[in-house]
Predict the structure of WD40 repeat-like protein.
Amino acid sequence: MQSAHASQLFQTSSSLATGKRRAAKASGSAAKRGRPIYLGRRQKDAEDLKLGGAGSDAGREKVLDALVDGGGRVWTAESGGVVRGTDLQTGRTTHLLLAHKAPVCSLALISPTLLASAGWDKVIHFWPISPTPSTSNGNTSTSAPHRPQPLYTISNASEDFIKALHYLPSQQVLLSGGADRSVRAWRLAGLESALQTRSAGTLSGSHTRGITSITSLARIEGQQGVGGNEVVYTADSMGRILEVQLDCSGDDRVRFEVLRELRGPETSVAQLVGCWGPLHEDEDEDDEENAAGAGPSRRPAYIWAASNDKTAQRFDVVAPVAKAGATKGAPQPRHERSSNTGALLGRLPPLAPSVILSHPDYVKTVLPLPQDAAAGRADVVVTGSADEDLRVWRLAGNEVGAEQQLVRRQRGHWHEVEKVLLWHGIVDEDEGEEGKEASSASVASWWVISAGLDGSIRRWRLDELLVAGGEEEEDEDKVEEEVSKQANGSESKSPAGGGMTAEEEAELAELMSDEE
């Protein structure tokens, strides 16, 4: 009798097949897709990944959160307790921030020179980061990464691990949330003295599960009310999303008030993203006062939610002024839910999603593209999923119930995609290829940056993603189908997973027929 490898014990045949498929992608089609930057060692050993089955991942280099700064770097929060700064043009590591003693789950950029990080160790660190990746001799390709120490630290910043950070620059307030189901506010105006006291305020009792994401709408010129950073949106692992008003007028305290619920996701929300829609043109050319922002806001604002219920949903939290003759009203929320989030909260009626993008697996991240980046279109959305793929969507319009079109499904990552970001810059196209000298384009362009549990950062040229998928994707479908067939075929022939060979199955069938 043949024995199974130790890592294959207690794994189903489906799990083992997943490992084989991921191994084939990591060593084959996914190796160079998206101009990858590997944070650890590149997964070249397909056999190790096969043996790991569905549990195969990048180990300590799994990316749990990421953000892009103004200096052309991507910062990654990793499962090994490391915060890493990487130059997106060259792919070189510029910073290694080493102080966390557990996985790092969230990052927040406080200023061009200050970064906050938090994770399972319930600590918030504030790191000094240089505004640009530079060295004394100007050669970033051969220099060692900077390893600064934290400037300040908030110890015991939560009763359980911290999952989300969000900074409100207009109020100089940092929000943190995590598994203790509370959102805490930290005033950073007087950083050294503030960190020696307790939090300035806490939202507790409203969420029934751990906080997973916090976001807000950036302040833009000419917008009023909800567009300020005093209104934030919080989400938890049960699918509850709250619109919360922050009163930061006091000298010391920050007060929270729940305004309403955004009811849509049926289970855990992986990410919230706030954005402004395009300015709607008015048929009345004389109505310039309203268009300038003096009257009612005519620019819609959206909150996008990526959820484990396999959807990305858009909520129109600020609706534009309705055009004359418009009759379609706001969507009604679904009050019946498969998950029990508790009694309805807030003094305002709940809000339902206006757009729902369905996926075959958990949606981990969502990126609504600004109009200037998406070739003049304001209705393009990029999502990342647990099925390892990026998807580019185009909405038929910004009104309620607008139809959506899947423009492209982009393969590349061999594990779950955790974060999708937007960056404008230059990439050395030949970076990382042996025997080639790095060269870069002379003109900066838009890039979609993705990161995931395969321990890689991928750089996708946006104008290429906006093109509908062609023969390349069809070829990859055929490759994956062939890999799946080979995996299934090997399972039927090999008893390594605890099953029987074809000969043993035939013998058993003969014995059973004899008994009858």
